[in-house]
Amino acid sequence: MTVDFGDIKLYYFSPINGSPTCGRGEHIRLLFKDAGINFDYVRLEGKEWLELKQKLVTDKKAASPTLPFITIDGKYYGKTIPIMKYISNKLGMYIASNDEDAQLVDSYADIIMGWIDRWANAYFWNPNEETVKKYEGEQVAQAYADFENILATHKGAYLLGETITYPDFVLFHMMEDDGSAANKALTHPHVDAFIKAMQERPNLKSYLATDRQ
């Protein structure tokens, strides 16, 4: 399905800790890249974001803006998962084919976002010895165990089996941000198969081979 999105821009922070892919903007960028959507990526320093945030509120374009967000011909669309669902629905791609699977896909997205929050809490929001120890010693192992079980429930490499859906991009990048997926290949074969399937998607494979600036 071909959709003309017009002038589409993705807004997120400037590279975090020197990484051009760290954080939630990359979840959306991966979906855009896979779908072949042309877009501008606007990276903001902290001061620039505060000024833009105030302008969005003042101009009544958004009541409570956060990053990442996108604009389509100047219209604001916010929050990572709602953006990805909106674009997927417009494309007629990355969505479930029935209500039962749609509920399942949304629940997977919610589980992944919980993992993202725990990771961010340990390393960005509240970094201290206790939060890091809890994440690295308990929470990350539980996350990989959960997704090994989830990925094993369907025939195929993706969360919904043979059909890729929007939370697959979120999960793939969360595993990139976490950085320990390479150590799970032998103990988590379904996770390993999922990562390889994502890496071999033609548009993603080309993108992943770049410096991803």
Automatic annotation (TrEMBL):
Pfam families: GST_C_3 (PF14497). Residues 98-213 form the GST C-terminal domain. Transmembrane segments: none annotated. One of its GO terms (biological process) is glutathione metabolic process. GO terms for molecular function: glutathione transferase activity. It comes from the Eukaryota. InterPro entries: Glutathione-S-Trfase_C-like, Glutathione-S-Trfase_C_sf, Glutathione_S-Trfase, Glutathione_S-Trfase_N, GST_C, GST_superfamily, Thioredoxin-like_sf. This is Glutathione S-transferase.
